Amino acid sequence: MYFPVSYHPAPKYILFFAFLSLLHCAFSVAQHRSYLRLINQEYTYLSADIYVQLFVSLAVGLYSATAFSGDFQKIRSDCEDEPETWDTFGNCPSFYTFEHRGKPMSASFVGFTQPEE
What we know:
Blueprint: H1 10-38, H2 48-69
């Protein structure tokens, strides 16, 4: 049976096992540090298998989290298929500000004055 990527259950399970593997890495690091304390050795570096497990589970977790979230889409989905004209090319209506709180502080602001009689 075909599932779209966002509905397929495999990335959920892979993400779960990657998280468990990262927890196992943390436990292994703590166990390694306590072992070094017991034998009175200085902590210099971790063993290579912990580094390999850490980076592999991190990469698998990132991939499965991306696959779990679904397909990527454009941010503005309402204008995907509409061609952009020259009139609207430089138009940014979301940035228009007409009445803002700094307007009276502007040097070019005339303000509302009463007509002189």
